[in-house]
Design a protein that fits this description.
The complex is a heterodimer.
Chain A (H helix, E strand, L loop, with lengths): L2 H10 L12 E2 L9 E15 L5 E16 L4 H23 L14 E13 L2 E16 L9
Parallel strand pairs in A: 1-2
Antiparallel strand pairs in A: 2-3, 3-5, 4-5
Chain B lengths: L18 E6 L8 E4 L8 E4 L3 E4 L5 E4 L4 E6 L9 H12 L3 H4 L2 E12 L2 E14 L14 E5 L3 E9 L2 E6 L1
Antiparallel strand pairs in B: 1-2, 1-7, 3-6, 4-5, 6-9, 7-8, 8-9, 8-10, 10-11
Classes of the chains: A alpha+beta, B mainly beta.
Protein backbone atom coordinates (compact mmCIF):
# COMPACT_ATOMS: atom_id res chain seq x y z
CA UNK A 1 0.00 0.00 0.00
CA UNK A 2 1.40 3.39 -0.95
CA UNK A 3 1.87 6.12 1.62
CA UNK A 4 -0.90 8.07 -0.09
CA UNK A 5 -3.33 5.17 0.19
CA UNK A 6 -2.33 4.58 3.79
CA UNK A 7 -2.75 8.24 4.70
CA UNK A 8 -6.12 8.37 3.00
CA UNK A 9 -7.37 5.21 4.70
CA UNK A 10 -6.13 6.42 8.07
CA UNK A 11 -7.73 9.86 7.82
CA UNK A 12 -10.95 8.18 6.82
CA UNK A 13 -11.06 6.67 10.32
CA UNK A 14 -10.83 10.04 12.07
CA UNK A 15 -13.90 10.56 14.28
CA UNK A 16 -14.05 14.17 13.17
CA UNK A 17 -14.60 13.00 9.61
CA UNK A 18 -17.28 10.45 10.42
CA UNK A 19 -19.87 12.76 8.86
CA UNK A 20 -17.97 12.87 5.62
CA UNK A 21 -20.35 11.48 3.03
CA UNK A 22 -17.94 9.97 0.57
CA UNK A 23 -14.47 8.57 0.44
CA UNK A 24 -11.71 11.10 0.68
CA UNK A 25 -10.70 11.91 -2.87
CA UNK A 26 -7.18 12.56 -4.07
CA UNK A 27 -6.34 15.92 -5.66
CA UNK A 28 -10.02 16.79 -5.83
CA UNK A 29 -12.74 17.98 -3.52
CA UNK A 30 -16.29 17.54 -4.66
CA UNK A 31 -18.71 20.45 -4.64
CA UNK A 32 -21.03 18.54 -2.34
CA UNK A 33 -20.87 19.56 1.31
CA UNK A 34 -19.47 16.69 3.36
CA UNK A 35 -16.82 15.81 0.81
CA UNK A 36 -13.11 15.76 1.50
CA UNK A 37 -9.96 15.85 -0.58
CA UNK A 38 -6.38 14.88 0.07
CA UNK A 39 -3.73 16.82 -1.82
CA UNK A 40 -0.21 15.40 -1.56
CA UNK A 41 2.71 17.63 -2.44
CA UNK A 42 5.44 15.08 -2.88
CA UNK A 43 8.33 13.81 -0.82
CA UNK A 44 11.18 15.91 0.45
CA UNK A 45 14.41 14.20 1.47
CA UNK A 46 15.43 15.94 4.68
CA UNK A 47 18.67 14.15 5.38
CA UNK A 48 20.73 11.20 4.25
CA UNK A 49 23.22 9.29 6.38
CA UNK A 50 25.24 6.26 5.46
CA UNK A 51 26.46 3.97 8.22
CA UNK A 52 29.90 2.41 8.24
CA UNK A 53 28.50 -0.74 6.68
CA UNK A 54 27.04 1.12 3.72
CA UNK A 55 23.39 1.11 4.75
CA UNK A 56 21.64 4.37 3.89
CA UNK A 57 19.11 5.99 6.17
CA UNK A 58 16.90 8.72 4.72
CA UNK A 59 14.73 11.07 6.71
CA UNK A 60 11.85 11.96 4.41
CA UNK A 61 8.96 14.33 4.70
CA UNK A 62 5.61 14.14 2.92
CA UNK A 63 3.19 17.01 3.16
CA UNK A 64 -0.52 16.65 2.55
CA UNK A 65 -3.24 19.26 2.47
CA UNK A 66 -6.64 18.04 3.59
CA UNK A 67 -9.59 19.97 2.21
CA UNK A 68 -13.00 19.59 3.80
CA UNK A 69 -16.19 21.00 2.37
CA UNK A 70 -19.05 21.75 4.72
CA UNK A 71 -22.34 23.58 4.49
CA UNK A 72 -21.82 27.29 4.88
CA UNK A 73 -24.24 29.48 6.62
CA UNK A 74 -22.90 32.77 7.85
CA UNK A 75 -24.07 32.31 11.38
CA UNK A 76 -21.78 31.99 14.29
CA UNK A 77 -22.96 28.52 15.33
CA UNK A 78 -22.26 26.89 11.97
CA UNK A 79 -18.89 28.53 11.62
CA UNK A 80 -17.87 27.59 15.14
CA UNK A 81 -18.89 23.97 14.53
CA UNK A 82 -16.74 23.85 11.40
CA UNK A 83 -13.75 25.21 13.26
CA UNK A 84 -14.29 22.72 16.07
CA UNK A 85 -14.32 19.81 13.64
CA UNK A 86 -11.03 21.07 12.28
CA UNK A 87 -9.67 21.29 15.80
CA UNK A 88 -10.87 17.75 16.61
CA UNK A 89 -9.22 16.40 13.49
CA UNK A 90 -5.94 18.11 14.37
CA UNK A 91 -6.08 16.84 17.95
CA UNK A 92 -6.83 13.29 16.79
CA UNK A 93 -3.87 13.29 14.42
CA UNK A 94 -1.54 14.57 17.13
CA UNK A 95 -2.85 12.02 19.64
CA UNK A 96 -2.40 9.13 17.23
CA UNK A 97 1.13 10.21 16.44
CA UNK A 98 2.09 10.78 20.06
CA UNK A 99 0.64 7.42 21.14
CA UNK A 100 2.28 5.69 18.16
CA UNK A 101 -1.11 4.31 17.13
CA UNK A 102 -0.96 5.98 13.72
CA UNK A 103 0.03 3.76 10.80
CA UNK A 104 3.72 3.22 10.17
CA UNK A 105 4.78 4.79 6.91
CA UNK A 106 8.51 4.12 6.86
CA UNK A 107 11.05 1.48 7.80
CA UNK A 108 11.64 2.53 11.42
CA UNK A 109 8.51 3.39 13.38
CA UNK A 110 10.15 4.86 16.47
CA UNK A 111 11.35 8.19 15.03
CA UNK A 112 8.24 8.71 12.90
CA UNK A 113 6.01 11.69 13.50
CA UNK A 114 2.90 13.21 12.03
CA UNK A 115 2.37 16.88 12.69
CA UNK A 116 -0.47 19.20 11.87
CA UNK A 117 -0.10 22.66 10.45
CA UNK A 118 -2.50 25.54 10.54
CA UNK A 119 -6.10 24.93 9.60
CA UNK A 120 -8.19 27.68 8.11
CA UNK A 121 -11.20 28.64 6.08
CA UNK A 122 -10.04 28.43 2.51
CA UNK A 123 -13.11 29.84 0.82
CA UNK A 124 -16.90 29.94 0.86
CA UNK A 125 -19.43 30.13 -1.95
CA UNK A 126 -22.84 28.81 -2.97
CA UNK A 127 -23.73 27.60 0.50
CA UNK A 128 -20.60 25.59 1.14
CA UNK A 129 -17.24 26.35 2.64
CA UNK A 130 -13.85 24.73 2.21
CA UNK A 131 -11.50 24.37 5.13
CA UNK A 132 -7.96 23.15 4.84
CA UNK A 133 -5.42 21.69 7.19
CA UNK A 134 -1.84 20.63 6.53
CA UNK A 135 -0.55 17.23 7.64
CA UNK A 136 3.18 16.58 7.60
CA UNK A 137 4.56 13.07 7.80
CA UNK A 138 8.20 12.54 8.75
CA UNK A 139 9.49 9.00 8.35
CA UNK A 140 12.59 6.93 7.79
CA UNK A 141 13.54 4.99 4.70
CA UNK A 142 16.34 2.47 5.05
CA UNK A 143 18.18 1.20 2.02
CA UNK A 144 20.26 -1.78 3.00
CA UNK A 145 23.70 -2.18 1.50
CA UNK A 146 22.51 -5.26 -0.31
CA UNK A 147 25.10 -4.77 -3.01
CA UNK A 148 27.81 -5.53 -0.46
CA UNK A 149 28.08 -9.29 0.11
CA UNK A 150 30.27 -8.70 3.16
CA UNK A 151 27.37 -7.36 5.22
CA UNK A 152 26.51 -10.33 7.35
CA UNK B 1 54.93 -10.98 3.44
CA UNK B 2 54.83 -9.15 0.13
CA UNK B 3 53.04 -5.85 -0.04
CA UNK B 4 49.38 -6.08 -0.92
CA UNK B 5 47.69 -4.00 -3.54
CA UNK B 6 44.25 -2.50 -3.41
CA UNK B 7 41.62 -4.11 -5.58
CA UNK B 8 39.68 -0.89 -6.17
CA UNK B 9 40.04 1.25 -9.31
CA UNK B 10 43.06 3.54 -9.28
CA UNK B 11 42.14 7.20 -9.01
CA UNK B 12 39.05 6.48 -6.95
CA UNK B 13 38.64 6.85 -3.23
CA UNK B 14 37.64 3.75 -1.31
CA UNK B 15 34.17 3.45 0.18
CA UNK B 16 34.04 3.23 3.97
CA UNK B 17 31.93 0.08 3.92
CA UNK B 18 34.83 -1.86 2.44
CA UNK B 19 36.44 -1.92 5.89
CA UNK B 20 34.32 -4.06 8.17
CA UNK B 21 34.74 -5.19 11.76
CA UNK B 22 33.08 -8.42 12.79
CA UNK B 23 32.32 -10.01 16.13
CA UNK B 24 32.40 -13.76 16.49
CA UNK B 25 28.94 -14.77 17.70
CA UNK B 26 29.73 -18.45 17.37
CA UNK B 27 32.58 -20.40 18.92
CA UNK B 28 36.32 -20.12 18.60
CA UNK B 29 36.57 -23.26 16.50
CA UNK B 30 33.42 -22.60 14.48
CA UNK B 31 33.19 -18.83 14.29
CA UNK B 32 30.15 -16.98 13.04
CA UNK B 33 31.13 -13.49 12.00
CA UNK B 34 28.60 -10.72 12.42
CA UNK B 35 29.37 -7.21 11.16
CA UNK B 36 29.41 -4.42 13.73
CA UNK B 37 28.35 -0.87 12.99
CA UNK B 38 24.82 -0.91 11.68
CA UNK B 39 23.37 2.62 12.00
CA UNK B 40 26.77 3.95 13.12
CA UNK B 41 27.70 6.72 10.73
CA UNK B 42 31.25 7.38 11.90
CA UNK B 43 33.70 4.91 13.41
CA UNK B 44 37.45 4.62 13.04
CA UNK B 45 40.04 2.29 14.49
CA UNK B 46 42.43 4.50 16.46
CA UNK B 47 46.05 3.32 16.36
CA UNK B 48 48.23 4.22 19.33
CA UNK B 49 51.83 3.33 18.59
CA UNK B 50 52.97 4.65 21.96
CA UNK B 51 55.25 7.11 20.24
CA UNK B 52 57.82 8.71 22.52
CA UNK B 53 60.23 11.33 21.35
CA UNK B 54 63.31 12.42 23.25
CA UNK B 55 66.21 14.71 22.49
CA UNK B 56 69.73 14.04 23.72
CA UNK B 57 72.17 16.65 24.99
CA UNK B 58 73.56 17.07 21.50
CA UNK B 59 70.18 17.99 20.09
CA UNK B 60 69.55 14.74 18.25
CA UNK B 61 65.97 13.54 18.26
CA UNK B 62 65.10 9.90 18.84
CA UNK B 63 61.64 8.43 18.57
CA UNK B 64 60.49 5.03 19.70
CA UNK B 65 57.26 3.26 18.93
CA UNK B 66 55.59 0.07 20.10
CA UNK B 67 53.18 -2.38 18.58
CA UNK B 68 49.95 -0.39 18.35
CA UNK B 69 47.01 -0.54 20.67
CA UNK B 70 43.93 -0.32 18.49
CA UNK B 71 40.62 0.93 19.81
CA UNK B 72 37.41 1.53 17.95
CA UNK B 73 34.18 3.09 19.16
CA UNK B 74 30.76 2.37 17.70
CA UNK B 75 28.39 5.08 18.83
CA UNK B 76 25.40 5.19 19.21
CA UNK B 77 24.83 1.54 18.16
CA UNK B 78 21.03 1.46 18.55
CA UNK B 79 19.73 -1.86 19.82
CA UNK B 80 18.09 -4.03 17.19
CA UNK B 81 16.73 -7.53 17.76
CA UNK B 82 18.08 -8.52 14.37
CA UNK B 83 21.65 -7.54 15.18
CA UNK B 84 23.15 -10.69 16.68
CA UNK B 85 26.37 -8.95 17.64
CA UNK B 86 24.61 -6.33 19.74
CA UNK B 87 22.30 -8.92 21.26
CA UNK B 88 25.30 -10.99 22.32
CA UNK B 89 27.06 -7.96 23.80
CA UNK B 90 23.90 -6.84 25.60
CA UNK B 91 23.63 -10.25 27.26
CA UNK B 92 27.27 -10.25 28.30
CA UNK B 93 27.42 -6.65 29.48
CA UNK B 94 23.97 -5.70 30.66
CA UNK B 95 22.30 -8.94 31.70
CA UNK B 96 25.29 -10.89 33.02
CA UNK B 97 27.87 -8.15 33.57
CA UNK B 98 30.37 -10.80 32.55
CA UNK B 99 33.48 -8.66 32.39
CA UNK B 100 35.73 -11.68 31.92
CA UNK B 101 33.93 -12.70 28.77
CA UNK B 102 33.75 -9.12 27.56
CA UNK B 103 37.51 -8.81 27.79
CA UNK B 104 38.04 -11.96 25.69
CA UNK B 105 36.01 -11.44 22.57
CA UNK B 106 36.96 -12.70 19.15
CA UNK B 107 36.97 -10.03 16.43
CA UNK B 108 37.88 -9.93 12.78
CA UNK B 109 38.78 -6.88 10.75
CA UNK B 110 38.34 -7.42 7.04
CA UNK B 111 39.95 -5.04 4.57
CA UNK B 112 37.88 -5.98 1.55
CA UNK B 113 39.70 -3.38 -0.55
CA UNK B 114 43.12 -5.02 -0.03
CA UNK B 115 44.29 -8.20 -1.71
CA UNK B 116 42.56 -9.96 -4.49
CA UNK B 117 38.81 -9.88 -4.82
CA UNK B 118 37.44 -12.97 -3.16
CA UNK B 119 40.50 -13.40 -0.96
CA UNK B 120 41.10 -10.17 0.86
CA UNK B 121 43.33 -9.20 3.75
CA UNK B 122 41.96 -9.81 7.22
CA UNK B 123 43.26 -9.76 10.77
CA UNK B 124 41.81 -11.70 13.65
CA UNK B 125 42.19 -10.68 17.30
CA UNK B 126 41.09 -13.40 19.69
CA UNK B 127 41.26 -11.45 22.95
CA UNK B 128 39.42 -8.20 22.36
CA UNK B 129 38.05 -6.15 25.22
CA UNK B 130 34.62 -4.78 24.46
CA UNK B 131 33.13 -2.33 26.90
CA UNK B 132 29.67 -0.84 26.89
CA UNK B 133 29.98 2.84 27.61
CA UNK B 134 26.30 3.61 28.18
CA UNK B 135 22.78 2.36 27.64
CA UNK B 136 19.82 4.63 26.97
CA UNK B 137 18.99 7.71 24.99
CA UNK B 138 16.64 10.64 24.84
CA UNK B 139 12.89 10.35 25.27
CA UNK B 140 11.07 9.59 22.06
CA UNK B 141 14.25 8.21 20.56
CA UNK B 142 15.83 4.80 20.53
CA UNK B 143 17.96 2.83 22.99
CA UNK B 144 21.59 3.21 22.14
CA UNK B 145 24.39 1.04 23.48
CA UNK B 146 27.71 2.58 22.41
CA UNK B 147 30.56 0.10 22.49
CA UNK B 148 34.30 0.46 22.55
CA UNK B 149 36.48 -2.31 21.21
CA UNK B 150 40.13 -2.67 22.14
CA UNK B 151 41.59 -5.20 19.74
CA UNK B 152 43.86 -7.58 21.57
CA UNK B 153 44.95 -11.12 22.21
CA UNK B 154 46.75 -13.00 19.50
CA UNK B 155 46.79 -11.21 16.19
CA UNK B 156 46.47 -13.61 13.29
CA UNK B 157 46.64 -12.30 9.77
CA UNK B 158 45.19 -14.06 6.80
CA UNK B 159 42.55 -13.77 4.16
CA UNK B 160 38.80 -13.62 4.22
CA UNK B 161 36.23 -14.71 1.71
CA UNK B 162 32.48 -14.56 1.61
CA UNK B 163 30.03 -17.00 0.09
CA UNK B 164 26.33 -17.57 0.63
CA UNK B 165 26.20 -15.03 3.42
CA UNK B 166 29.04 -16.58 5.37
CA UNK B 167 32.39 -14.91 6.00
CA UNK B 168 35.32 -17.31 6.29
CA UNK B 169 38.72 -16.42 7.67
CA UNK B 170 41.80 -18.38 6.66
CA UNK B 171 45.01 -17.80 8.59
CA UNK B 172 48.27 -17.34 6.71
Amino acid sequence: MSRLEKMKAWLQTAPALSDTDTDIMVDYTDDVPGSAGLFPSGTQEVSRTRDVLGNVRLVCRDTFAVYLRWPYFPDSETLQTSEEVLEQLADWIREQSAARTAPVFGDDPIPESITVGQGRLWGAEDGSSVYSITVTLTYIQIHEGGYNPWLI
Amino acid sequence: MADLTFNTPAGQTIARELLIAYLNTGTSSAPTWKAIGRRVSDSSAEYDFGKETAQDVLGNTFTTMKRPTITQTFDPAPLDAGDNALVKLWNLAIKDQDFNALSNQDCLIVHTYAGTTGSVFAERYDGCAISITSLGGEGGGTIGMPIEVTYGGTRTTGTASVADGVVTFTAD
